[in-house]
Amino acid sequence: MRFAAKLSELESLLSKRWRGMGGSHRRLRPVETYGPRELLVREPSGLRPLINFSSNDYLGLSQMEQEVKLSSQPSSRLLGGNRCRVEAWEAEVATYWSKDSALFYPTGYMANVGVLSCLPQKGDLVLMDRLCHASLIDGVRLSSARWKRYRHLDMEHLESLLKDHDGAGAVWVVSESIFSMDGDCPDVSALRQLKERYGFILMVDEAHGVGVMGQGGRGFFEDQGALDLVDILMFNFSKTLALQGGCVLGVGELKRHLVALSRPQIYSTATPSSHWEALLPRMAAMESDADGRRHIAGLKKSIEQGLGLQNVGPSGIIPLMIGDGSKALAVFEQLWEAGFFCPAVLPPTVPQGKARLRLSLNSSLRESDVNALLVELQKCL
Q: What is the residue range of 308's domain?
């Protein structure tokens, strides 16, 4: 009876807190089959197709016929043995991005946490864009370094914080290349000037730049001719490359430190080496798909013109600002009923009062899909 009473207390507590969220509730939507252009969702009446404006499968590589194998390796790379071919694939990835080393992680979230929880030390200062991804924030919170956030994309504010630094310890500046909820990007020229002036270590999360930008799909900093500027480059395989995992690139010494000190790397079961067999063919497909990148840019231009949007960033991410979370959910439901999957993004993922729909464009979508969506958006925005 005492155990049952405790469970009842927990249920009561969670129910009360749920009601206090004010209607901005997230829930999982049952999807029967996935495609970069179309989802089949399960509803009481049966299966129904939705045009998918949520996918990060930017170049549709999940549809490549090559099988992704998942044979087991039930231990970490340190304890269970480090497969030689995984080392070889990491070297290939490092060479492709013109870096000295690469280290694979089971997820992109773990890669960011793994870097920032162990590299910045007591006495160091970490300066992070205010809208950086939760994984970057969680990582630095686990470190012993001091950290501050500068206003989003505000290089003047960043410089003021750099000027205030007392000179003791290393300074780390952390940014995304393409911000995942806003689709905008930092001023690379200003970053370069600040780096030359203050000598900080720059870490960049390229999760949403890889595949979509750059001549070879290496991301926003390749597109800007500035891969050399980035000391630590992270991206994940689960978006454009349609695999599972994350990757950290940088100098050779970086990999040695992460293998020795990064807890997500040390204490996580290794991704099965067979999983990576699909990596190089998908990287080759990504590199050669300039048409896919141009198609995404064309779809984006159509949406910008159709909705009269200005100052949208250079990626395939388009935020449609709503403001109120309940209203954003209502618009999402209207579009769902009309046959479009355009997810609402609510606090705490975005600040209070800045709920939105987040459109994510991929090369499998058609111009006719965009035109049909624009018709529906005109009805509900």
A: 23-60+290-380
